[in-house]
């Protein structure tokens, strides 16, 4: 049976070590043997099949199995665009600040627009920890959300999520892209990983339920 997730209980003094190795905190700090601990989990690739980033154009959402190591900004940007462009139903994006280096470009916006208009049930949910940069500097996705407000929703995450440092997205409940730290571009992408997508979607939906629409973004006209 394929293992999809590793779980452990880390002493709080070791949390930074596990964060550097793609683990994410879950729940509240608890005491064990009078020492504070934190539940942590790490999602694993669905298969041990490594796909070279140069083969990105061949990757088909919902069909191609294996994972792509993302090494830098351009890897992330092009993989996000390629995956979203194939979406037909949904995009769920959890991001600290809608990093403009990845998400504020014409190709990404066109891919999101195509997905949003693909069918009457298409839905794009974007969850942001800190929308202040988007409000201050503007962002193409905000204008698109204003024009297609029945399909694209942007919420501000609840305070419970403020320690969330990673970025992840799920497309059509099968494709996933994740980065352990928003300020670094190393990450992983899989175009056909429904099991891991379900795990990430559960995390996303729980955070979405606690979130609220961001009034400043609704008022912002680019």
UniProtKB/TrEMBL annotation:
Residues 74-220 form the DUF7931 domain. Gene3D superfamilies: 3.40.630.30. InterPro entries: Acyl_CoA_acyltransferase, DUF7931. This is DUF7931 domain-containing protein. It comes from hydrothermal vent metagenome.
């Amino acid at each position: 049976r394929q293992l999809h997730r590793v779980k452990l209980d880390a002493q709080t003094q070791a949390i930074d070590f596990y964060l550097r190795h793609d683990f994410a905190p879950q729940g509240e700090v608890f005491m064990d043997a009078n020492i504070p601990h934190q539940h942590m989990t790490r999602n694993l690739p669905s298969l041990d099949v490594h796909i070279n980033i140069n083969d990105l154009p061949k990757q088909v959402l919902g069909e191609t199995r294996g994972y792509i190591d993302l090494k830098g900004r351009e890897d992330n940007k092009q993989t996000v665009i390629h995956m979203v462009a194939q979406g037909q139903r949904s995009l769920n994006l959890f991001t600290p600040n809608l990093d403009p280096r990845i998400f504020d470009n014409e190709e990404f916006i066109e891919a999101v627009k195509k997905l949003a208009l693909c069918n009457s049930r298409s839905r794009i949910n974007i969850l942001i920890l800190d929308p202040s940069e988007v409000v201050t500097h503007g962002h193409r996705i905000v204008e698109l959300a204003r024009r297609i407000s029945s399909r694209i929703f942007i919420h501000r995450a609840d305070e419970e999520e403020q320690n969330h440092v990673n970025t992840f997205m799920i497309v059509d409940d099968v494709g996933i892209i994740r980065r352990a730290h928003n300020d670094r571009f190393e990450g992983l992408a899989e175009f056909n990983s429904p099991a891991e997508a379900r795990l990430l979607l559960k995390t996303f939906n729980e955070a979405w339920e606690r979130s609220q629409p961001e009034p400043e973004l609704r008022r912002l006209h680019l």
